[in-house]
Amino acid sequence: MNDKKLADVIILARGGGSLEDLWPFNEEIVARAIYNSEIPIVSAVGHETDFTISDFVSDLRAPTPSAAAELVNPDIYELQNKVNTLKERARIGLNKKLEIAKLKYNAVSQKRVLTEPLLNIQNYYLKLDGFIKQMENIINLKTSEAKKVFTEKVSKLDALSPLKTLTRGYAIVEKDTKLIKTSKDLKKGDLVELKFSEGRNKAEIVE
Fold it and tell me: Three-state SS for 146?
């Protein structure tokens, strides 16, 4: 069994039988010999439903001895037909993949981002310019509203200013730098200072 010149493949075969008839193919010495064989071994022991240890350590299991013979000596023409069929399927499959790849390439190559790259840049510039103008308009509007509110508040403060009152002919009376609000704060002989819209004058209370 170790002589390579005897055969390229060894068929280990036996017809169907009882468990006792097939038991030699379960022996350890047989299993080791099959496993250590340098020549490929096809196990075809018993019927298709029979299993022995030889089946599991062989290179290939055949359901029957005749099936093993067919596996070892296949029909060359049938193999050629199978090879040709597989080659044709591979060729058709490759052509389909190439066609799909071409379609995808054509679809991508016709996109505007590739055919007119500057157009996209110009569109982004226009959008950016629009955003800038929009922000400028918002800033100008907010600034105008803030100026209006500020002007209104300044006008109100100006109307309430004592200096504004002085321009209408009134004067502020002070004594020792203190504002005099009523005549009860003064007495005869007091020296006071009169503050006008323009300039100051001193006076003495005579009554």
Answer: helix
pTM of the model: 0.32
Range of the domain at 27: 10-72
SS (H, E, C) 87-120: HHHHHHHHHHHHHHHHHHHHHHHCCHHHHCHHHH
The pLDDT, as a whole number, for residue 91 is: 92
Residue 173 makes CB contacts below 8 A (sequence gap 6+) with: 179, 180, 186, 192, 193, 194, 195
Question: Is residue 45 within 8 Å of residue 12, measured between CB atoms?
Answer: yes
pLDDT in tens, 142-182: 999 989 889 888 887 777 766 666 666 677 777 777 777 77
Q: Which of 60, 78, 80, 57 is nearest to 68 (CA)?
A: 60
Q: Is residue 175 part of a domain?
A: yes
Domain count within the chain: 2
d(CA 48, CA 66): 11
Residue 107 lies in a domain: no
Mean of per-residue pLDDT scores for the chain: 80
